[in-house]
Amino acid sequence: MKSDGSSVDKTPGAGRPRDPRIDAAILRATADLLVEIGYSNLTMAAVAERAGTTKTALYRRWSSKAELVHEAAFPAAPSAIDTPPGSFAADIRAMLAATRDVFTSPVVRAALPGLIADMVADADLNVRVMNRFTEVFVAVRNRVAEAVRRGEVRADVDPDRLVEVIGGATLLRMLLQPGAQLGDDWVDQTTAIVVHGVVT
Fold it and tell me: Which parts of the sequence are annotated with region: Disordered (predicted)?
């Protein structure tokens, strides 16, 4: 049964932060429903009911279903490359493995097709969603610049194209074989192909 909005999500006074417990409940409900019923069947009303709050509470936090789903599927936007600098091949492998791990989670698998369609149809939404990945683009640019200075990577390599290749390869494999697992052998083989295309 849906709880009364006033008891679960009191409207904060001016300048007061929103209740993180409500945020967490909404995101958890969204993730669970995505796996259970899929993106196309997900509604803000269903999320509100599962989270024990109101649609008003949802729309105070997220302006659309797509933005809510994006945050539920990608709760923490990647911001750095975990490998220590010094080997661009290791950087590429780490990026591919991290992308594989994120894209193959049940929630992301359920969210991506519908989310991509909504982002293609709405340019403003596309910009708002992609802005959450700004830090990872900066991290890749920095690693490419370091590798160029070491003489390991060609100076004409575009970091943004590199991100597209890594994300695109992972996404296409998922679309071609939606039930298949992307193992370490796929990561290693794809790493070798990408590295071959950028090294000096």
Answer: 1-21
